[in-house]
Amino acid sequence: MLAILKRNKWSYLAMVAFLFLLILLPSQWFLGQKTFLLTLIGINTMVTVGLCLLMGYTGQVSLGQAAFFGIGAYFSAILSTRYDVNPWLAMLIAAMVTGAFAYVIGYPIFRLRGNYLAMATLGLGIIVWIMFKELSQYTGGPDGLGGIPNLSIGGFAFDSNLKRYFMVWFFCVCVLLISQNIVRSRTGRALRAIHSSEAAAESVGINIAQFKVKIFVLSAVFASLAGSLYAHHTHAISPSSFDFLGSVMILVMAVVGGLASIWGAIFGAATIQYLKSEILVQLGNNDVIVYGLLLMLVMIFMPKGLFVSLRDVYNGWRQRRSQRGVVT
Amino acid sequence: MSSPVLEAKGLSKVFGGLTALDKVDLAVEAGKITSVIGPNGAGKTTLFNLIAGVYAPSSGEIYFQGKPLGKIPPYKRAALGIARTFQNVLLFDNMTALENVMSGQHVRSRYGFLEAAIRLPKAHREEETISLKAMRYLNLVGLGMHTQQNALSLPLGQQKILAIARALATEPKLLLLDEPGAGLNALEKQGLGELIRRIRDMGISIILVEHDMDLVMGIAEWVIVLDSGQKIAEGTASQIQKDRRVIAAYLGEEEKVE
Question: Does residue B91 sit at the A interface (CB-CB below 8 Å)?
Answer without folding.
Answer: yes
